[in-house]
Amino acid sequence: MFEAHLEDGKTFKDIIEAIKDLVTDCNLDCSEEEVSIQSMDSAHVSLVSVQLSSTCFSHYRCDRPNSLGINTQNMSKIFKMMGKDDSLTLKAEDGADSMTLMFEGTKQDTIADFGTYW
Question: Are 52 and 35 in contact (CB under 8 A)?
Answer without folding.
Answer: yes
